[in-house]
Design goal:
This protein folds into 2 domains: about 5-90, Beta Barrel (Elongation Factor Tu (Ef-tu), domain 3), CATH 2.40.30; about 105-275, Rossmann fold, CATH 3.40.50. The longest helix has 14 residues, at about 215-230. Strands 10-9-8-7-11-12-15 form a 7-stranded mixed beta sheet, sandwiched between helices. Strands 1-2-5-4-3-6 form a 6-stranded antiparallel barrel. A two-stranded antiparallel sheet has the order 13-14. Strand 7 (about 130-140), helix 4 and strand 8 form a beta-alpha-beta unit. It is an alpha/beta fold. It contains 8 helices and 15 strands.
């Protein structure tokens, strides 16, 4: 799909938790040409907010996309003030999303953890139906798991989702509507398990054929180490601060076993074993 900027219409924009908003945009072109794990660039109208803000896709429907974002600066504060019917500039889908599908059983059987510094034999590819998939999200990494969970269900997989928040959870109803196994953790213990998602995983061992994750780098690093120990593959969606969002400014690179990669254009999804977590 040719990368371009569209003028699209907001159909809803609501606060769903403290500092967290959910925006739905009417855009058949984007909805029909994107995959879970990709993101779009939203362009503020303010003169002092020239750079786009990358926002992960939360839900993908026939004619609409849904984005969930946190208010962290001028740009996202401006987005939170937009109302139904307003138009905004939004890019076509960016980056490489999660790899899903029906035919990875052969490659999974060859997955082995190599010597330190080498890349595992399993590539980012597809997985046969009927496997146990575990999705792990932290904070604003949780929204991208909604579209991913729905897509994996259509492939016939068994889905477990573990979501971590500081205090107030959100999007719980979206996962519950899919009828999947859902586990919630909060740092405060006000809701669900008290602790982090990794605290929960370590305290409640379970079998899983494959992991997908999106969230803060420390969480992803711990999960990648856990999966390496269990010899289970994991795809991670990296959260890096982006400048241009198109791969031109080199402001969002991360170090991998194959050298530096631009998260916005060569990611944001990588195999956990690819990433040099201590670079």
């Amino acid at each position: 799909m040719t990368k371009k900027i569209l003028e699209e219409r907001i159909t809803s924009n609501q606060k769903i938790a403290e500092g967290i908003f959910r925006m739905t945009i009417y855009s058949p072109e984007i909805a029909q040409n994107c995959t879970p794990g990709q993101f779009v660039n939203l362009y503020p109208r303010g003169r002092h907010t020239l750079l786009p803000r990358p926002i992960s896709l939360c839900k993908i429907e026939d004619e609409h996309i849904t984005l969930v974002y946190g208010v962290v600066g001028q740009g996202t504060q401006e987005f939170s003030e937009y109302t139904q019917g307003q138009e905004l500039r939004v890019s076509t889908p960016q980056g490489n999303g999660f790899d899903i599908g029906p035919s990875l059983s052969e490659k999974m059987s060859k997955f082995t953890v190599k010597r330190e510094g080498e890349v595992p034999t399993l590539g980012r590819s597809e997985l046969e139906a009927g496997r146990q998939m575990t999705l792990v999200g932290g904070g604003l990494g949780v929204p991208s798991l909604v579209a991913l969970a729905k897509a994996l269900i259509t492939q016939g997989h068994h889905i477990r989702v573990i979501c971590g928040f500081r205090t107030e959870p959100y999007l719980i109803e979206e996962f519950e509507a899919l009828g999947i196994s859902l586990y919630v953790t909060t740092d405060s213990g006000d809701y669900g398990f008290k602790g982090t998602v990794m605290d929960y995983i370590c305290a409640h061992p379970f079998a899983s054929d494959y992991y997908y994750a999106c969230g803060p780098k420390p969480m992803l690093r711990e999960l990648a180490a856990y999966c390496r120990e269990k010899q289970v593959p994991v795809q991670v969606s990296m959260e890096e601060r982006m400048g241009c969002g198109y791969g031109a400014c080199l402001g969002c690179v991360c170090n991998t076993q194959r050298g530096y990669k631009k998260v916005c254009s060569e990611g944001p999804v990588f195999l956990g074993e690819e990433v040099d977590w201590y670079a």
